[in-house]
Write a sequence for this structure.
């Protein structure tokens, strides 16, 4: 099995590069989304119908080599979980060192193109120390993600999660639950000009200015469609 030398992509897209102006150096883990492999990394994708419009195809994701790298990482995660997590520890440590050299704060997003409950993923490091999750291994580092799972509550204090909206009718009970749970929500609109000032009565902020979500209050994070999402007709894109 091929194992990547580096699991995290650092400052690899326009939004995370913009985050550097806010003082953050971002590392993102990109896995193969939904059921593109035999393992489902996005449990709500079919209900939300975001699997077709997934950002997996946007930017560098359009290249076959990038797609294969994501498949390789996913295979590694599911078949040799502990060595994968140990490599992730190495990568995060490198990100911290690089951020310190640049006078920036490290920021880690584990679900770049997946929706895994990382708070439940325990592991043992190379020194035999057991951790309940990666957040416990790096308690002083800020992690963040987007999720379609409205049931993710009582998360580690250094893990910030934004709920990802879908307009698909069958997904609305989950949207309502996310609202009840007071979750920040990201919404993908058809075009940039379509992004309103408010949505569902909640103020909208631009999600394309940066990917530094943990600084936002309870708002709607407005995004505009990219990649295959531009052609989405399921209702996922507003």
């Amino acid at each position: 099995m091929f194992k990547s030398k580096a699991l995290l992509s650092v400052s690899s897209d326009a939004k995370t590069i913009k985050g550097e102006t806010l003082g953050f150096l971002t590392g993102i883990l990109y896995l193969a989304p939904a059921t593109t492999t035999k393992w489902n990394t996005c449990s709500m994708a079919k209900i939300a119908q975001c699997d077709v419009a997934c950002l997996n195809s946007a930017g560098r994701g359009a290249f076959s080599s990038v797609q294969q790298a994501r498949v390789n990482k996913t295979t590694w995660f599911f078949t040799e979980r502990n060595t994968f997590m140990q490599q992730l520890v190495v990568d995060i440590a490198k990100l911290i060192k690089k951020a310190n050299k640049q006078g920036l704060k490290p920021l880690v997003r584990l679900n770049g193109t997946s929706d895994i409950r990382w708070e439940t993923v325990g592991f043992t490091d190379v020194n035999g120390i057991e951790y309940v999750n990666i957040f416990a291994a790096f308690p002083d580092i800020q992690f963040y993600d987007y999720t379609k799972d409205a049931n993710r509550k009582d998360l580690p204090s250094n893990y910030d999660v934004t709920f990802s909206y879908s307009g698909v009718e069958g997904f609305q009970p989950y949207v309502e639950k996310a609202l009840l749970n007071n979750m920040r929500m990201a919404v993908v609109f058809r075009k940039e000009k379509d992004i309103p000032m408010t949505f569902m009565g909640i103020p909208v902020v631009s999600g394309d200015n940066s990917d530094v979500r943990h600084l936002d209050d309870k708002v709607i994070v407005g995004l505009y469609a990219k990649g295959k999402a531009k052609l989405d007709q399921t209702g996922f894109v507003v």
About this structure: DSSP finds six helices and eleven strands in the chain.
